[in-house]
Structures are given as C-alpha cells and as structure tokens.
Amino acid sequence: IDNGFVTSKAFNISDNLGRLLENEVFVELLRQGYKIETSLFYYRSRNDREVDFVTRNGAHIHQLIQVCYDMTSPKTEKREIIECAEELKCNNLIIVTYNDEREINQDGYNIKVIPFIKFASAY
User: Fold this and answer.
1) Strand 60-67 to 50-57 pairing
2) How many CB atoms within 10 Å of residue 43?
3) How far apart, in Å, are the Cα atoms of 117 and each of 24, 79, 80, 96, 100?
4) pLDDT tens, position by position, 62-111
5) How are beta strands 93-97 and 109-115 bridged, if at all?
C-alpha cells in the first residue's frame, strides 16, 4: 500500500519509520516486477532468524534484503546483519537504510548497506 495512505489513516504513537521504509522497499520490489510467492518472499530460518525480502529467479535465490531505517547503533547493526546467507546459499546481501551507505564484511560475506534512494534508482 502507498505510504501516503498508511500515514493518513493509521493511528500511531510513534512515527514507525522502519515499517514505512520496509513498506516502501516492498512497493519498489513490486514495481521492479517481482511477484509475491513466485519471485518475492519473506524468510524465517530454522533458528528463528529472518530476512525481510528474498528474491529469486526460478529456483536460484538472487538476493537477500533487510530493511533498517537507522543503523547507527552497533546493537542494531548486529541484529540486522543477514544471517541466513549460508542457509540459503546466497552472497548477494543488501541492507536498505534511510541514508547510511557502506559495506560490512562479516563471516566471509560482503553486505552492501545502501540508502533507499539508491536502491530504488539502481534497480
């Protein structure tokens, strides 16, 4: 759903910016042509880790995408690091943020952290 509708009709105590950004990434993935339950999925691992978006081409997992509005806290960064990469056999790892941009190297994986504006314009 369009974030304009969400913010105009929802009653919130806080801004809930993370959820709005996650919704915007979802809308962008649909715009890019991904189809729910065909090429676009949510994933929860065996040890209760999750990935916001898994994209695939046929049987091949294409990328794992996490969404996090603000990754300035080390605790948040640790929580948002994509831990399902080995289980899903995917090394195209992205964390979409509001404005953070960098790369994180962890456990042999390179994770691209990119702001939403670049995510939307690059794909």
Assistant:
1) antiparallel
2) 15
3) 10, 23, 19, 9, 11
4) 999 999 999 888 887 777 677 789 889 999 999 999 999 999 998 889 99
5) parallel
Distance, CA of 49 to CA of 80 (rounded, Å): 10
- Which amino acid, one-letter code, is at 51? V
Phi, psi of 72 (to 5 degrees): -75, -25
Tell the residue number behind the tokens 């709005």, with chain if given.
Answer: 20
Is-contact 58 104, C-beta < 8 A? no
Tokens of 90: 């995917």
Q: What is the pTM of this model?
A: 0.84
Q: Which residues pair with 111 in a beta bridge?
A: 93, 104
Query: What is the edge-to-edge ordering of all strands in the sheet holding 40-44?
Result: 40-44, 50-57, 60-67, 93-97, 109-115, 102-106
